[in-house]
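Before a colleague's protein record goes any further, I have to sign it off. I want your independent view on whether this chain really folds as the tokens say. The record follows directly below this note.
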Amino acid sequence: MVATSSTMIPIGSKAPDFSLLDTRSDQFFDFSIKQSSKAYLLCFICNHCPYVIHLLDHLVKQCNEWNKKEISVLMISSNDEVKYPADSPKKMKELAESKGFSFPYLFDHDQSVAKSYKAACTPDFFLFDHNKKLFYRGQYDGSRPGQSTSVTGADLINAMERLLNGLVPPQKQIPSIGCNIKWKYGNAPEYFPK
């Protein structure tokens, strides 16, 4: 596994629109449709990454709580499903059902959404305000697989609380670290480290 960091796009960036298959419902989810959410949290994850597996139970529990509070949570997998069959839409649906996702788990088949957000790793988190302007991009917390530090979600939870309380974004935002997105042959974007 290769540890890759977030690209840390500028705070205030507008969230690109997209339409992707929700593997939970087998329906397309259109992010361009006007919603009245207090915040939008996009999490680039996948099924097989040890960094995702390490925090997934805590993340799902936290996101299910946020989802009840008018916060739109979206999980997105952009991995090459041919080389990594554990990340296929069928397996994504199975994971969403077994872990009790109450939010969409979207499949980015052509990897265009990952590229438009400059996502680089799994997990990679992007928190937007109600106007879909970027408020936070960075780590869930300081825990990593194989370390004794507990998963708390402290960094992302702090950012969410600041956003909901009308405060400015956290000054210190630490890049997320995880496995690199598994780009299809010849599809790696310019921002991705060679």
About this structure: The chain has one domain: 3-180. The chain has a mean pLDDT of 94. Residues 3-180 form a domain with the Glutaredoxin fold (CATH 3.40.30.10). Residues 98 and 155 are 26 Å apart (CA to CA).
